[in-house]
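Something for you to look into today, if you have time. Could you write out one complete protein record for me, on any chain you like? The space below this message is yours for that.
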Amino acid sequence: MNEVAAARCLTAGAAASLCCVAAPAFAGIWALAPTFSASAEYETNPLLRPVGAVPGTAIVANIGLPAQWDDGARHVEISPSVRLAEATGDSPIGANAYYLSGIVYVKSDRSEWSASLRLGDDSSALREPAAGTLLRTDVRERYIDTSPSWAHSFTERTQATLQAEWQSLDYTTPDAAQLGLFNYRYGTATAQLSHALTERTQLLVLAQASRYEVPTDGYNEDNYSVQAGLNGQATSLWAYKAMVGLSRLKDSTSGATTSGDLYLLSVNRTGLQSTWSTSLTKSIQPSGFGTLAQAIEADTTFQWRTSDRTSYSGSARWVETTNSFASFTLANRSYVSLSGAVTYRATEIWDVSGTLSWQRSATGATLFEIPASGQGYGIVITAQRRFGRVKLT
């Protein structure tokens, strides 16, 4: 199952910026690149319920019509898309969805600038962010994601990047409040400075500020963090990244503040036929209680191409989330997932893939919760049709 949070990270294009940058671009050549895919999905326990699990099935079609323009220094893309779904049971695919996204990208000798925007009307399943557990399906939501960024090279060894992101999520279900669902806003600003110590090693310094709001009840949290570390290429195949830092959170409603440490360690191997990566991360998440929710996450992924037509991929993920206040444990959750997929290029224009997955979520004893766990299996069969680019004059 793909996480809704992850799906939202596939953003593209800022509509306001499109007007500024795309206007002279219409004198050039635009190209259309239609996409189509269809899938059948089945999951034994998509909500990961301890008892009373109801299998979910879905037949899904995704249609996209991205329009692109590029002259080497500038790139503009506008992508309307639609998802058509027929779902039963506790399927994580709620119903039909509609999206409009776009991206603007401009580069010069020393700088690169981009902006993206995505608008959506979706009904994918709502997930608990700390552990990825599904809470319910058929929750209609509208969202806006936007992300401008700017990168500049001061010298051949020193570069800086500024990036911002803002998300707005509104639930349109009439009884959303009774279901414990609220409207959310999340904004973050990031500044990163990198300096090449050697030909293979970079020094990274990163500062970030974020704000999490629930406008419907006036709650908000401000989080500030700073990190430093190294990004390096050990050999022609192996790369690594190591970061450590501190985070400070303030609950603007109560005025309470707290702080915690965070880190990232990742290793990647990239070959001609295979890629492999693994990472260990400690992060800070909004808790809703004026304290830090600390999550430790381990991820491993691989891709292996055995021929021009066949490739394999897999992933493993483990997340442990804890949150405490004084001597009380407010949250204690774990989430584990394993998945494997095979993709076969049947013809020059058709790909067929199959994915098998297993997931388990568990809640430990806390001040408000009793121990519980649920697990389930899933299978997805997908066929994707590739179309050639159609140039427009």
Notes: The radius of gyration is 22 Å. The mean pLDDT is 84. The CA atoms of residues 97 and 119 lie 11 Å apart.
